[in-house]
Amino acid sequence: MVQLQQEHPEDIAAISLNLDYSGDSDAPADYREEVGGFLNSIRASAMENVVCGDSFDDVMATFAENFQTDGVPVVLVYGRDGKLLKSFNGEAYDDEISPFVKTALRQESESTSEASSE
Asked: What pTM, to 2 d.p., does this model score?
């Protein structure tokens, strides 16, 4: 997602969600420095990066209920209209996710061009 965000900064809004918080006595803020260091190392600073304040188990229960997924990583691809286009769970980024996103961007661009020429 970092690469797609860098290639299409005007067309993609990528958000990362860190789920390291276990819900124990530690606080989500305790992870921010470590998570931030990793995200900087992969040049993800152009993305919105969120450290989750809910426990991993709670988040996964919500994901399972709302997105029919039972594990991470999960990539949810939405269109400009806010509708979920596709949910990926464990698929290969280069082989499946990136081509899907690029195709969706191309189709949206073609649709916009056709609409403006009518």
From this structure: 0.73
Query: Mind listing the pLDDT tens digit for each residue in 59-116?
Result: 888 888 887 777 788 888 988 888 889 888 877 888 899 999 999 999 888 887 776 6
Residue 93: other Cβ atoms inside 10 A:
16
In order of their start, the domains of the chain are: 2-113 (3.40.30)
Residue recorded with tokens 């949910």: 87
Residue with tokens 């809004």: 13
* Residue 84 Cα distances to 55, 91, 98, 109, angstroms: 24, 17, 16, 18
Look up residue 56 and give its amino acid. Answer: F
One-letter identity of residue 100? F
d(CA 23, CA 52): 10
Confirm if 112 and 81 have CB atoms less than 8 A apart: no
Are 42 and 18 in contact by the 8 Å Cβ rule? The answer is: no
- Which H helix or E strand runs over 88? strand 84-89
